Amino acid sequence: MNSYVLFGIVALYLAILFFAAFWGENKAPKKWVSNPYIYSLSIAVYCSAWTYYGSIGNAATSGISFLPIYLGPMIVAPLWIIILRKIIRISKQHKISSIADFISLRYGNNRFLGALVTVICVIGTVPYISLQLKAVSETYAIFADNKIQTSTGIFNDTTFYIAVFLALFATFYGTQKTDASEKHRGIITSVALESILKLIFFLIAGIYITFFLFDGTEDIYQKISTYPNFSSLIKFDGIEMGINWYLTLLLSMFAIFLLPRQFQVMVVENSNEKHLAKAIWLFPLYLLLINLFVIFIAWGGIISFGSSEQAEYFTLLLPLKNQHQILALIVFLGGFSAVISMVVVSTLALSTMVSNNLIIPYGFLDKFVRRHSAKNTSSIKNIRRISIFLIIIAAYFFYLVYSIQLSLYSIGLISFIVIAQLAPSFFIGLFWNRGSSKAAITGIILGFLITFYCLILPFTIEALTGNSSFTDYGPWKIEFLKPYQLFGLKLFNSTSNAFFWSLTVNTFCYLIFSLTAKGNYRERNYAEMFVNNENYAKLQDNVLVWRGEAYVSNIKNVLIKFLGVTATEKALQHFFLQYEISPETEIADARLINYSEKLLTGSIGSASAKILIDNVVKEEKISLVEVLQILEESRDTFAKNKMLHQKSTELLDLTQQLKNANHELILKDKQKDEFLDTVAHELKTPITGIRAASEILKDDINEMPNELKTQFLSNIIKDADRLSRLINNILDFEKLSTGRLKLSLHRKNFSETIDFAMQSLAHIIAKKRINIQYNSSEEVKLFYDEDRILQVLTNLISNAIKFSPEKNGTIKIEYTRENPFLKVVVQDNGKGIPEEDIDFIFDKFYQSKNQNTIKPEGSGLGLAISKQIIEKHNGKIWADKTFKSGAKIVFLLPIY
Amino acid sequence: MKKKVLIVDDEPNIVMTLEYAFRKQNFEVFIARDGSEAKIILEKALPQVVLLDVMMPKVDGYQTLKFIKNTSGLEHTKVVFISAKNKASDIEKGLNMGADKYITKPFSVKKVIGEVKQLLD
C-alpha cells in the first residue's frame, strides 16, 4: 500500500479518535462516559502493542510463557474489591493524581520519595513507550513495503515522525487542565473506544486466520503437531520454566496496580468506586477474549511461514501474504489503537508526575510563588507538555539504541521489573503502618540498582559493544556476579533472575529498615491515615489533626498564585459555607489547611503543595498518639459532650467537696485556735499564782510572818506541780489526738492494774475516808497498754474521789466480762453529773457551769485523755445517764 | 476611811496574794469566788474598786461588769479586769464594756496596786 494513502488513513483514524475524545470531554451525557463498562474498557489500556503483537511472538517462540502476563491480573482482579477500593478511597480523600503522589504521601509526603518514584516510573515507562514506537514503525514499514526498514537518519525515520505525532496528540489531550486530579473524560472515552476497536480487530484477525486460512483450531493443531519443536510450545520446559512462569505471574499482578497508566485509569480516573464490582469480571473477560486466538495465530504463522521469524507481526503478515489488504489495515489500526491509548495515558500520568513530583518541587516552586496565577497555570501546562515531549523523545532514543535488537516481549518485561520495585513500599505500606520512608527509599534504590545490574547493564553493553562476555562470564570473570545468574543461582532466566533478586533485596531492606527505624511524626500520621483509612475517611474533615498558626489571608495569597483570584474566592466561599465558618475568620484552622493542600495538590502535587502551605503555616508537631486521641475524641462528639456534662457535674460535686473541706479546715483551725487559747489560759493561771506569790515574798521577806511565808511558798509549790501536770496532760492529749501515741500492748491480768491504781491513790482515799467497794470476782486477762489504762483508772477514781460527798463517800469499782468486752464501772455517790453537761464531759477543757464554786483541781483534760486512750484500744467510754445517785462512768475494752 | 476593794477570782492562790497586798496598803478587802458571790457582796459593801477575773464558772466577768453598771450605788465603782486573755480584741472588748483598766495575767502585784491607786485618786 502506498505510504501516503496509509498516512491518510491513519490521519483519518486519528481524527475519529480525536472526535471521540472531544465528544467524551464536552458533549457526552455523563452516564455515557462514566459507567462501569467504560471504566473496565479503560483498564484494558493494559493491553498495548505488547499484547497485540508481542504475545504472538512469545507464543510462537516460547509457547505458553506469554500467558502469565494476563493470568496475573485475572487472578488478582477479585482482590480489587479490597485493595483497589482502598487505594481509590485514599486517593480521592487526598486528591492524589499519580502513583508517585500516592507513595510519597503514604510516607509523610516525602519529597525525595515522590521524585524517586517518578524517576523509577520514567525509567520503567520509557522502554515501554519505545516498544510502542517500535511496533508502530515496524508495522507501518511492513504495511508500506512489506519489510522492516532500518533508519538512515532521524529525519528520514518514520518512527521519529510517529513519535512526534504521538507526542502532539498526547500533549493536546493530556494538558487541558492544570488540576491533574480532575477526570480526563475525553481521554478515557477515546481509550475505551480504542479498547473496543483493538479487541474487535484482533478477534477479526484471529477468526480470519483460524477459520478462513485454516479449517479451525483442530486443523491448526494437527498441522503444528508435526512441527519439530512442538512439545516445547505446549509444555513447561522443566522446573526452571515453571518457576519463571510463576515469577512472571507475580510480576504481572504487581504491574496491574503499579504501572503509571494503570494507576491513572484505575485510580485517578475512577469516578465511582462501585464500578469496581463490574470491572473485576469484565476486565478478566476482556483479557480472556484478547488472548483467545493468540496461540492459533502463532501456530498458523509458523505453519504458513515455516519459522517463527517476525512472529510478532503474524497478524499483519498473514493477511498481507493472502492479499487481504483491508484486513491487514484493520489489524494495523487495531495495533495503532493499542499504541495510542498506551502512549497517551502513560505520558499523561508521567508528565503529571514529572512536573508535580520532580520539576516543580525541585526548582520551580520559588518562581511560582512570586508570579501571577495566569502565568503559573500556563507554566505548569508547559512543563507538562515539555515533559510529554521529552518522554517520547527519550523513548525514541531508547528505541534507536536498544529496541531494534530486542523483542517487544523482553522490552515489556524490563519495564515491568523496574516498576515492580515500587511493590514493597506500595503494598506493604498500604496495610502495615510501620513502613517508613527511609525503608521505602532504600528498598527502591537497591532494588533498582540490582535490576539495572542484572538486566539493563547487560543489554546496554551488548547493544553498544555487541560483546556478550559480561553476561557470559560476569564482570572480571567473577562467576558469582554473572548478571543473569546472580550469586550463582541458576534457577531463572534473565528476567526472572533480575526480578527475584531485586525484589527480595528490596522487600528485605524495606522490612528491616521499617522495623529498626521509626519514621517521624508526620510520616506516622500519614501511615495511619493510609492503613486505617476507613476510620479516618469519615472524620478527616471534621478533625483538627493539626495544631499550628496560619492566617487565612496568607493561605489565600498562595492559592491565588496557582488557582487565580476567582477560583480561589469560589473555593474559599465553598469552604466557609460547607463548614459554616464566618468568611471574616482570620486564623486558619486544620480544615482549611487540609482543604488548601488538597486544592494545590491537584495542580502541583502533594509534595509541593505541602511545601507551599508550610511556608505560611507555623506548624507544631503532633504525635500519632495525639492524632489517635483526637480521632477517638471526635469519633462521636455526642459521647464527648455527654462525658463533658458528666465531668462538669463531677466538677460541681468536687467544688462542693472542696468547699466543705475548706469549711472543715477553717473550723478545725478555729478549734485549734480555741484550744491554744484555752491551753494558754490554763497555763497562765498557775504562773500568775507563782509570780504574784514570789513577788510578795521577795518584797516583804523581812516583815512577813513565817506562817504566811510558808503558806505562800506551799502555794508556789502547788502551782508548780499543777503546771507540770498540765503540761504533761497537754502533751498526752496532743499525742493521742494526732495519733502519734503508740500503744504498747501486753497481755495482763486486769485486777492487777486496778490494784496499782488504788495503791497510788490510797493516801487520798484514806484522807477523805472514802469507802471503796471493789470486788474482783474473776480473773480477766487481755491485751492493753497498762500505763495508759492506769492513767484512765486513776483519772476516773480521782474524779470520783473529788466529787464524792465529804461524809460517807462511797466509790464502787467493778469489772465484768461481757464478751467480747471487758466492762469497767467507776461510780460515786456524789451529786452526779448535771444533765446539761453529761454529753460534754469528755470534751477537752470542758468545765461545768454548775461546778462547785471551789474549782476542783485538774487540767480539764483528764476525761478527754481517757476517752482518747479507750478509743485507741478500740473501746468505748461514756457516762451512764440512767444512774441518778451519783456519777457513773463506764468503759469497755475488747478482750483479745 | 479605808478604801474598799472587791477581788473576784476562782483561783484561791491568786486571791490570796492580792488580798495580802491590798491589806498591806490599807484597803478593806472583800473576796468573791465567782460572779454570783460578787453580786451579793457588791450590793452590801459598795466597794470603790473591783478586781474582776473574766473567766469564771456560773457568772463570768462580763456579766458581773454589766451588773455593776446597772446597779444604783455602784456608779462610781471602778472596775479593773484581770485576765489571762491578752489578745488585743479581748482587751478592747473589756474596755468597751466599761472597764476602767485591763490588766493581763500574769501580773505584777505592784502594778495592780499602782493602777488601782491611780484610779482612785
TrEMBL record, chain A:
<dbReference type="InterPro" id="IPR038377">
    <property type="entry name" value="Na/Glc_symporter_sf"/>
</dbReference>
<dbReference type="InterPro" id="IPR004358">
    <property type="entry name" value="Sig_transdc_His_kin-like_C"/>
</dbReference>
<feature type="transmembrane region" description="Helical">
    <location>
        <begin position="36"/>
        <end position="53"/>
    </location>
</feature>
<dbReference type="InterPro" id="IPR036097">
    <property type="entry name" value="HisK_dim/P_sf"/>
</dbReference>
<keyword id="KW-0418">Kinase</keyword>
<comment type="similarity">
    <text>Belongs to the sodium:solute symporter (SSF) (TC 2.A.21) family.</text>
</comment>
<keyword id="KW-0597">Phosphoprotein</keyword>
<feature type="transmembrane region" description="Helical">
    <location>
        <begin position="326"/>
        <end position="350"/>
    </location>
</feature>
<dbReference type="GO" id="GO:0022857">
    <property type="term" value="F:transmembrane transporter activity"/>
</dbReference>
<dbReference type="GO" id="GO:0000155">
    <property type="term" value="F:phosphorelay sensor kinase activity"/>
</dbReference>
<feature type="transmembrane region" description="Helical">
    <location>
        <begin position="112"/>
        <end position="131"/>
    </location>
</feature>
<feature type="transmembrane region" description="Helical">
    <location>
        <begin position="383"/>
        <end position="402"/>
    </location>
</feature>
<feature type="transmembrane region" description="Helical">
    <location>
        <begin position="408"/>
        <end position="432"/>
    </location>
</feature>
<dbReference type="Pfam" id="PF02518">
    <property type="entry name" value="HATPase_c"/>
</dbReference>
<keyword id="KW-0808">Transferase</keyword>
<keyword id="KW-1133">Transmembrane helix</keyword>
<dbReference type="InterPro" id="IPR003661">
    <property type="entry name" value="HisK_dim/P_dom"/>
</dbReference>
<keyword id="KW-0812">Transmembrane</keyword>
<feature type="transmembrane region" description="Helical">
    <location>
        <begin position="65"/>
        <end position="84"/>
    </location>
</feature>
<feature type="transmembrane region" description="Helical">
    <location>
        <begin position="280"/>
        <end position="306"/>
    </location>
</feature>
<feature type="transmembrane region" description="Helical">
    <location>
        <begin position="196"/>
        <end position="214"/>
    </location>
</feature>
<dbReference type="InterPro" id="IPR036890">
    <property type="entry name" value="HATPase_C_sf"/>
</dbReference>
Automatic annotation (TrEMBL), chain B:
<dbReference type="InterPro" id="IPR050595">
    <property type="entry name" value="Bact_response_regulator"/>
</dbReference>
<dbReference type="Pfam" id="PF00072">
    <property type="entry name" value="Response_reg"/>
</dbReference>
<feature type="domain" description="Response regulatory">
    <location>
        <begin position="4"/>
        <end position="120"/>
    </location>
</feature>
<dbReference type="InterPro" id="IPR011006">
    <property type="entry name" value="CheY-like_superfamily"/>
</dbReference>
<dbReference type="GO" id="GO:0000160">
    <property type="term" value="P:phosphorelay signal transduction system"/>
</dbReference>
<dbReference type="InterPro" id="IPR001789">
    <property type="entry name" value="Sig_transdc_resp-reg_receiver"/>
</dbReference>
<keyword id="KW-0597">Phosphoprotein</keyword>
<feature type="modified residue" description="4-aspartylphosphate">
    <location>
        <position position="53"/>
    </location>
</feature>
<protein>
    <submittedName>
        <fullName>Response regulator receiver domain-containing protein</fullName>
    </submittedName>
</protein>
